[in-house]
Specification:
The chain is an alpha+beta fold. It has one domain (4-90): YaeB-like fold. Helix content is 35%, strand content 27%. Strands 1-4-3-2 form a 4-stranded mixed β-sheet. A hairpin with a 4-residue loop joins strand 3 (68-75) and strand 4 (80-88). Helix 1 packs antiparallel against helix 2 (29-45). The radius of gyration is 14 Å and the shape is globular. The protein starts with a strand and ends in a 10-residue tail after the last strand.
Protein backbone atom coordinates (compact mmCIF):
# COMPACT_ATOMS: atom_id res chain seq x y z
CA UNK A 1 0.00 0.00 0.00
CA UNK A 2 1.28 3.45 -0.88
CA UNK A 3 0.73 6.09 1.76
CA UNK A 4 -0.49 9.54 0.75
CA UNK A 5 1.97 12.39 1.39
CA UNK A 6 0.39 15.53 2.85
CA UNK A 7 2.48 18.68 3.22
CA UNK A 8 1.30 21.13 5.87
CA UNK A 9 1.38 24.83 5.10
CA UNK A 10 4.38 25.18 7.42
CA UNK A 11 6.28 22.45 5.59
CA UNK A 12 5.51 24.03 2.21
CA UNK A 13 6.76 27.39 3.48
CA UNK A 14 9.86 25.74 4.95
CA UNK A 15 10.75 24.16 1.60
CA UNK A 16 10.19 27.45 -0.23
CA UNK A 17 12.39 29.25 2.30
CA UNK A 18 15.16 26.68 1.92
CA UNK A 19 15.07 27.22 -1.83
CA UNK A 20 15.06 31.03 -1.52
CA UNK A 21 17.88 31.04 1.03
CA UNK A 22 20.17 28.91 -1.13
CA UNK A 23 19.09 30.60 -4.38
CA UNK A 24 19.19 34.26 -3.35
CA UNK A 25 21.19 34.58 -0.12
CA UNK A 26 23.90 32.06 -0.96
CA UNK A 27 23.46 32.84 -4.69
CA UNK A 28 23.70 29.23 -5.89
CA UNK A 29 20.57 28.60 -7.98
CA UNK A 30 21.56 25.14 -9.26
CA UNK A 31 22.27 23.94 -5.72
CA UNK A 32 18.96 25.40 -4.53
CA UNK A 33 17.00 23.30 -7.03
CA UNK A 34 19.08 20.16 -6.40
CA UNK A 35 18.69 20.47 -2.62
CA UNK A 36 14.94 20.94 -2.71
CA UNK A 37 14.66 18.09 -5.24
CA UNK A 38 16.60 15.77 -2.89
CA UNK A 39 14.35 16.70 0.02
CA UNK A 40 11.23 16.16 -2.10
CA UNK A 41 12.50 12.78 -3.35
CA UNK A 42 13.23 11.54 0.18
CA UNK A 43 9.78 12.69 1.30
CA UNK A 44 8.27 10.76 -1.63
CA UNK A 45 10.09 7.62 -0.42
CA UNK A 46 7.97 7.79 2.73
CA UNK A 47 4.92 6.77 0.69
CA UNK A 48 6.46 3.29 0.45
CA UNK A 49 8.25 3.15 3.81
CA UNK A 50 6.53 5.53 6.25
CA UNK A 51 7.78 3.74 9.36
CA UNK A 52 11.42 3.75 8.25
CA UNK A 53 12.30 6.28 10.97
CA UNK A 54 11.52 5.82 14.67
CA UNK A 55 8.95 7.95 16.42
CA UNK A 56 9.77 10.06 19.46
CA UNK A 57 7.78 10.12 22.70
CA UNK A 58 5.19 12.40 21.03
CA UNK A 59 4.73 10.11 18.03
CA UNK A 60 6.64 12.44 15.68
CA UNK A 61 9.22 10.99 13.30
CA UNK A 62 12.37 12.70 12.02
CA UNK A 63 14.18 12.05 8.76
CA UNK A 64 17.54 13.60 7.86
CA UNK A 65 18.19 14.78 4.30
CA UNK A 66 21.70 16.23 3.97
CA UNK A 67 21.76 19.13 6.47
CA UNK A 68 17.98 19.29 6.86
CA UNK A 69 15.48 17.60 9.13
CA UNK A 70 12.02 16.54 8.00
CA UNK A 71 9.51 16.10 10.84
CA UNK A 72 6.44 14.04 10.07
CA UNK A 73 3.54 12.22 11.63
CA UNK A 74 1.47 9.25 10.46
CA UNK A 75 -2.28 9.04 10.23
CA UNK A 76 -2.62 5.27 10.08
CA UNK A 77 -6.41 5.34 9.74
CA UNK A 78 -6.10 7.32 6.49
CA UNK A 79 -2.79 5.91 5.31
CA UNK A 80 -1.28 9.39 5.30
CA UNK A 81 2.20 10.75 5.98
CA UNK A 82 1.85 14.32 7.23
CA UNK A 83 4.96 16.43 6.70
CA UNK A 84 5.00 18.91 9.58
CA UNK A 85 8.22 20.88 9.17
CA UNK A 86 11.45 20.92 7.14
CA UNK A 87 14.26 22.76 8.90
CA UNK A 88 17.99 23.30 8.79
CA UNK A 89 19.63 20.82 11.16
CA UNK A 90 21.74 23.50 12.84
CA UNK A 91 18.84 25.39 14.39
CA UNK A 92 17.87 25.26 18.06
CA UNK A 93 15.08 22.68 18.02
CA UNK A 94 13.94 23.71 21.50
CA UNK A 95 12.50 26.94 20.08
CA UNK A 96 10.81 25.32 17.09
CA UNK A 97 7.11 24.59 16.96
CA UNK A 98 5.68 21.73 14.94
Amino acid sequence: MKWEIIMTVNAQKDLEQIYKNIRYVLAVPVTARKQTDRITEKISDLSDFPKMYPENENGIRKMTVDNYLVFYDLDESRGSVIILRIVYGGIDLNNMSL
